[in-house]
Structure formats: C-alpha cells, structure tokens
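Self-study notes.
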Amino acid sequence: MRKHTNTLRTNKFSAVLIAAMLLLAAAACRKENLPANNTGTTTSSETVSDEDAADAITEAMTGQKAGMTDQATEQTTMAKSSVVPCGGEKDTVLGGAGTYGPASYDYLYHAHLAVICTLGIPSKFTGTFSGNTSYSTTRMSSDDSCSGEFVVTGLAPTSDVYKLNLNYVRQGSQQSNVRKKASFTSTITITGTDIIVDKTTLLITTGTASVVMTGATSTGATFSKTATLTFTGSKTATLTFGSGASYPLSW
C-alpha cells in the first residue's frame, strides 16, 4: 500500500508540474506575438500623425478665404480703407464660397469692427468674428466653426508697417483623404503677437505664431500637439512641431 500511495503522489506532482509549464509557455507565446509597445492600451501610433495635423493646420491657416492668413489681409484691408470711422463701431457679415484648383470652400462670419482713436487719429483697429466654415481638398475635408480676434496697430501715416495681434480658433471635424485616411475632431488655436504686415501688399512679411491642436480620433484616442509658425514673407511660412518635424507652407 505504501508503494502505491507514493506512486499516486508522484503522478499527481508530475501532472501539476506539466500543467504549470504549459501555462508558462502559452503566456510567453502570447507576449511574443504582441506588437512592439503594445500594452493593451491605445498607443501614440494609433492617434493623429504630425502629417495629418500639418494638413489640418495648413488648411486652417492658408487654404481658403476663411483661413487665418486671408483673414489677416481682410482685417488690415478694412483697417486701411477706414470702413469704420474714427472712434466708431460697426457690425457686418463676411462670407463667400468658391474654388481654388480642385478644392472648394465656403464660410460665413458675423463680425464686429471698431476703431480706437487718440487725439482724433486712429491708433487701433479691432475685428472680432465667429461663424461656420467648410472646405474640401485633395488632401483633407473639414466642417467646422471659427472664431477670432484681430488687432491692427500702426494705423498712423508715420508708421511704415502694420502690426497684427491675433487669436484664431477653428473647431470641428476633419477627414484626411491621404495616407491612412484618418478621421478626427480637433480644436486648432493660433495665437500671434506683433506680426508684421506690409502696408502696400497687406501681406504678412515676418513674425511668429504659436499653434495648439487638441482632439480625438474616430476611435476615441485623444491627442495634443504644439507647433510654431514662422512667417518668412512672400506668402510662405514654416510649421515646426514640438516633435521637431518641420513643414514648409505656401499659399
């Protein structure tokens, strides 16, 4: 009987040991088959790339009449043409629709304009606005809202240039038409101080602006990106992300 009992114990121990070894082997196989950096949670590779963000920011800044650079020209044009009398205010509607190449756009803003004067001489033009915009290009499509404030100084004839302070926000949904065709929602905020605008061409010549872009993909992965816009004149600029990735822009 004692020999029989020992044999049973030995067999049970061997069975338990074999089962444990099989479980460890299975776990190791599962770990080896996981993609790199896969911890079971959403990784940065599954969110919006710098390339997709650059496309969205480029269109928000330059792509259509509702874009930040065109609105900068629009605001300085109104400041130059004295559409608002010295010390006065005015409410107006800014809107339009059209095409540029294979792309299309439309926008409608409600704006409040004001001119501040010092001793009867215009010293500051302000334009605040909000509305809706949309565009469709070969690279990206968007349906969003827009709001902003532009402050133009240097109105006196003795000033050689205009100086522009701005806060420009685009919020909505974007669909990329290239690469992985990412779909996402975003808020893009562009903020600049003392950006130089030529008084003759009414184009930005030099200056920098900060960009913050936050949002979420269609799968729920959130993202946040920061970048710097450096204006280099002749309708060109460089967009540089915090990651170091850099993209030349022209419009």
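Second protein, same conventions, sequence then structure:
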Amino acid sequence: MTQVMIVGNGEIDPRYATTIETADLIVRFNDCRSSTSSGLRTDVVAVCNTGRPAKIMLESNAWRSHPAVMKAKEIWCVRDPRKFAALRPVLAVRHPELDDFCDDGTPEFQAFCGANGKQCIVIDERIHDWVDDALHLYHPSPYVVPSSGMIVIASVLDQFPGARITIVGFGHEGWELHPFAAEKRLVEDYISLGKLRRLEARRAFRPSTTLDAAGPTEFTSR
C-alpha cells in the first residue's frame, strides 16, 4: 500500500522525523519551515502560486536553494489560474484590500521547475470547487478561499485512492479568511471514516458525521 505523508508547517515533534521519512511520498508546503524538525526528505513542495506568498518565494534565493525545495521532484501549484482569474472581480468588490491576491506566479514557478529538472503541476480547479462544496456542509463563516493544506489533502485523496494518507503539522489555524474551523471538522470526519490518519497523538474528537449524512464523494469512495 502506498504511504503518503502530508507535512504541514505547524509544530511537529522531532521524534516523528524518522516515521515521516519512511513514507513513499512526502509533501511539504511553501517555505518548508517544519523540515527543521521533521527531516529534509521531500518529494513534492505545494506552493501558494498567487499573490504575496508567491512573490516572496519567487524572489527569495533562500527559498530556491532550500534543501527541501532542491530535493523535491515536483512543485504543486495549489491555485488554478483559471479559478483565480474568475475570483479577481469578486474580490475587487468584497475585499478590495486584496488587490494582489490573484496575481498569478504560475509561469515563474514553471520556469523555476524547467531550469531545475522538476515537474510543475497545477492542481485543477475542480479540486477547489469540491472543497468549497464539502466545507459548505459545515456552515463556515464567510471566507475567501480554502487553505493550501485543505486543497492538497483533497488532491491527494483524489490522486491516490486506496493509499494510506497521513497528515502531520496541521494546526488548522492562521489567516482569518481561510475557513479553518470548518476545515478541521472536515479533516476529523475523514479521520473518523478511515480516509486519513493524523500522526500526532491528540485528545479524542467526536466526529460530526456530516460526511456520513452527505454520502460518499468521488474523491473519497474506495
């Protein structure tokens, strides 16, 4: 059975580093800052390829030369440019302060990959749409987009049916315009249904059973 480890940038017990590095596929995020405590082995770096985060990474020699980034064979762009081009006029009305949020850095990430022998993959907008639909079941507060972590979890569930998928370093907190509370409930329901595992030992969580009520989806049916 394929083992996939999705490594967030939250706190990770260094004792898990060996377990993380034994996975068949290791996915990290953006600046890979949790790699200091979770090992350097990396197969995929999932990047926020629009707005200021993209600009910061692309202009940073430290990011380009980061050991985890250099080890990665693939860069996954979590924001489909088509989705974010359509989102721009909506944000111009609802959140005019986010005027650079949809600025697309995908061509620059593609150029970086081409120059460094990596594959650049854009996660299709259908994954984003599916995540939005799934989160709607949990009645989130108004938000702009799901987090990169949630998009990657959904994409891995889609790409690797039947795999053993484990997450670590996910605190489900951060930017106030990501729907972290709803994302946490969605993730915990997937854990309760056996679709995901969480490496950290946590206190017992009572699943909301929302997914059971909604029935299986194309991403998680086995």
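Instructor comment on the second fold: The longest helix spans residues 81-94.
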